[in-house]
Amino acid sequence: MNESGDGQAAPASPQPAPPPDRPPLPAVILSALVVLGSFAALFHIDIPILRLLRSHNLSSLQSLGDLGEKLGNGGTLITISVLLLGAGYVLKRQPWIRTAVDSLLAHGVVALVVNSLKHIIGRPRPRLTHSGGWQWWPSLQSGLDSFPSGHTSATVAVATVLARALPRLSWVPFALAGWVGASRIWRGSHFPGDVVGGMVLGFMVGSIFNGPLRWWGRSCGHALVRIAPIVLLLTAWFWVLTHRILDPVTDTVLIASGVLLVVVGWVLEVMPQWRPATRGSMAAVVASKGLLLAGLGVATGSPLVIALTGLLCLARWNVAAHTLDECAQPSWRRDGLYAVASLAGVIAIQFLKGLVPLQ
């Protein structure tokens, strides 16, 4: 114990925050492949989705889109952070002050990165795109700055930081960020791929400021592993809506295979309740989650989505193999909800296939 000059014990110096666990490198690489593959799929259907939006009157959503644009505006986001900062000083809430400062820093960094990428990539805005093809080239011209979405990236970055101050309501800032991203698509300001790209970038930058800055690489790795399932889910959603399997036999086989995988995954999930000897088995828990996920991927009928789902399963298995957390206690209610949700997902996929034709 340290002592001061008058013989009294000096206050102990605060210990530095421990570094975050290093994410498994194979899981990071696999998650990166999932994200890149999802981008490739989204870029393939961006133009057809643009044509679809142009062919329908979405005036009923215009007001919601305008509100989403205002919410994702830089001035609005800065105002939210400044108000939180002021409230923290007035109420003497140090966590609020720290969160507000981090949100401002995350906003500034993501704005710098996004604006640089916009002009390096030079993708035309939807209003300037009239045919297929990529048409990407570095440019400083106005309108050639579609990828990634600035509103989405800034909103997600700020939401990621603010969510740590709202542990029980963390879904609120992310829901608002999702609204902003969706509004950028239906207003015709961005392609779906632009919005998903902004989401990934914003989440990674926000995650950096949620942890020690000197361990920013580890924070990025964890963020990439966490965001990959969301990216794949959005990609599968757009793909299923715009594609239908022409061969009914193949479609039936894939749906049946998806249902079978979900059922087998559920059996593995509830096995610890039937056989106590398997309780605490990480292999059974990980395999069950992977099979539930694989069942949904197979049901889409898309070779690309199925392949990306396989990569995602490998990434999740790799993460689980390196975790030291104990397995959750078995629960009939939770396990039943998993199974019902997965089966409902398979059924929904079947009804949504080709609902929005590309041609």
What features would you highlight for this structure?
globular, 12 helices, 359 residues, 69% helix, mainly alpha, 2 domains
Please explain how this structure is put together.
With 359 residues, the protein is mainly alpha-helical. The chain has two domains: 25-47 and 60-242, no CATH class; 248-352, no CATH class. Helix content is 69%, strand content 0%. It is built from twelve helices and no strands. It has helices spanning 25-55, 62-71, 74-91, 94-121, 150-162, 171-186, 192-208, 216-242, 248-274, 282-300, 303-322, 332-352. It is globular, with a radius of gyration of 23 Å. Mean pLDDT is 82; it is low at 10-14 and 324-328.
Brief description of this entry?
The chain is 69% helix and 0% strand.
Number of domains: 2
Shape: globular
Characterize the main sheet: none
- pLDDT < 50 runs, ≥5 residues: 10-14, 324-328
Number of helices: 12
Q: Would you tell me the structural class of the helices and strands?
A: mainly alpha
The residue fraction in helices comes out at: 55-70%
Distance from first to last alpha carbon: 75 Å
- Cα-atom radius of gyration: 23 Å
Strand content bin: under 5%
Average of pLDDT: 82
Order of helices and strands: HHHHHHHHHHHH
DSSP strand count = 0
